[in-house]
Amino acid sequence: MSTGSIDGLRVIENFITLEEESELINEIDKREWGGNGLPPNPEMKRRSQHYGYEFSYRYRNARYMGPLPSMLSFILSRLVSEDIVATPPDMCTVNEYNLKQGIMPHTDVVSLFGPTILSLSLLSPCLMRFEKEGEDEIKVLLPQRSLLVMAKSSRFDYKHSISKDEIEYLGDQKIVRGRRVSLTFRNIIKEGLN
Ligand SMILES: O=C(O)CCC(=O)C(=O)O
Ligand SMILES: [Fe+2]
């Protein structure tokens, strides 16, 4: 495990095994993708899948869909048994980043999503950039199969983003991106629903 230089930020390496990763990807790829012209976020170039709650980036609201699917159960139990969260997340967004796809700087909606945001990186590493006005950008490596934990300052005071670059550097380390699928786990704040 490596600890970032931002309060509340952690990257837990090898959170799942290679086998678990390939089983999960198989399951995900059997299911229907949205985005890229399809609801609930047709305007998005990335493809995505929504479980638990469906989130609209345009309307910034969420709709309940049902409990998280059983393919995610082992992750939910591990999150609790390894004391990463006290309550299992009730929402999971799967995002697919192909070459030249990234995510613009943003802070996850504070009124709708709880204080801890988790992101599991599958298939490819990437750099996540954290920025805050008046400070130098901080780059954090998200290795394949790692779990990013964003809490406290890293969740509330910074914007995070992923570039569209295929090749990036962290010091001397060269990071080459391929297709990346991430699973972002959150807890919905029920009062924030409309
Ligand atoms: O792909 C990731 O790891 C992060 C996704 C993200 O920041 C988001 O969906 O809000
Ligand atoms: Fe985010």
Structure, briefly:
This protein has 194 residues and is mainly beta.
Ligands, deduplicated: 2-oxoglutaric acid, fe (ii) ion
Largest sheet: 8 strands, antiparallel
Low-pLDDT residue intervals, each spanning 5 or more residues: none
Radius of gyration from CA coordinates:
16 Å
Structural class designation: mainly beta
Instruction: List the secondary-structure elements in sequence, H or E.
Output: EEHEEEEHEEEEEEHEEEE
Beta-strand portion reads: 35-45%
Distance between the first and last residues' Cα = 38 Å
Characterize the overall form. Answer: globular
Portion of residues within helices: 10-25%
Number of helices: 3
Summarize model confidence as the mean pLDDT: 92
Secondary structure: number of strands: 16
Can you list the strand order of the major beta sheet? 1-2-12-9-16-7-4-3
